[in-house]
């Protein structure tokens, strides 16, 4: 938490005191970082204010003031804005590292940030190839990734315990996985698939043996499923996030 006292900024988590920069420069520098973060996130300059306003639940006029160095978001909205853009809230507000942990690693993560993609339901994922160009995702939650993902990628929340493993890689219920429909599904890949008679997607490991394809759960208590023309692979999982709260 940052406390403002007279002409000093006290950083309680670092126990240091730095001179306060004039308000005009703070706003100018913040506006420049915001523009940079938007560009890095693939948000075009045209209509940028409206896009941010919709995602954060604020007015386009408020965002316009942020972009034009007229004001800065309050702390809560600053955190939401940073999360949306996939950058450190401390960097967005002050242009510096938090000073906590590995600074080089934090900067590396920010440089490698690629894009944000929508979090959708298993039903939407089950028909994604048909609806991704027409569905309204203006109210969807967008999650960032440092992986290079293709057009039409989406996040999906893991349901059930079929991918919960006692050893090795495990995906407990609530994990968000990023699905890239542009990657060729190969043997051993983690994939999201849809059975033709069920309008929802399932997350499994793809096994190809002697030309036969199977969907294998990571949890041994669940059966392996043989697939053929009764199934369509929607994409390959390339990233995952465990939601802690």
Topology diagram in text:
Layout: E1 2-5, E2 8-11, E3 16-19, H1 23-40, H2 48-56, H3 60-67, H4 75-85, H5 89-94, H6 103-112, E4 115-120, H7 122-126, H8 128-131, E5 142-145, E6 154-157, E7 175-180, E8 190-195, E9 201-209, E10 212-216, E11 225-227, E12 231-242
Parallel strand pairs: 4-6
Antiparallel strand pairs: 1-2, 2-3, 4-5, 6-7, 7-12, 8-9, 8-12, 9-10, 10-11
Helix pairs in contact: 2-3
InterPro entries: Cro/C1-type_HTH (IPR001387), Lambda_DNA-bd_dom_sf (IPR010982), LexA-like (IPR039418), LexA/Signal_pep-like_sf (IPR036286), LexA_repressor (IPR050077), Peptidase_S24_S26A/B/C (IPR015927)
Domain HTH cro/C1-type: 53-92
Pfam families: HTH_3 (PF01381), Peptidase_S24 (PF00717)
Care to describe what's here?
The chain folds into two domains: 2-113, 434 Repressor (Amino-terminal Domain), CATH 1.10.260.40; 116-242, Umud Fragment, subunit A, CATH 2.10.109.10. It is built from eight helices and twelve strands. It has helices at 23-40, 48-56, 60-67, 75-85, 89-94, 103-112, 122-126, 128-131; strands at 2-5, 8-11, 16-19, 115-120, 142-145, 154-157, 175-180, 190-195, 201-209, 212-216, 225-227, 231-242. Strand 9 and strand 10 (212-216) form a beta hairpin. The two termini are 20 Å apart. Mean pLDDT is 76; it is low at 1-21, 97-113 and 126-135.
The tally of domains stands at: 2
Distance between the terminal alpha carbons, to the nearest Å? 20 Å
Average pLDDT taken over every residue: 76
CATH architecture of the largest domain: Ribbon
How many separate helices? 8
Poorly predicted residue ranges: 1-21, 97-113, 126-135
Oligomer: single chain
Biggest sheet details: 9 strands, mixed
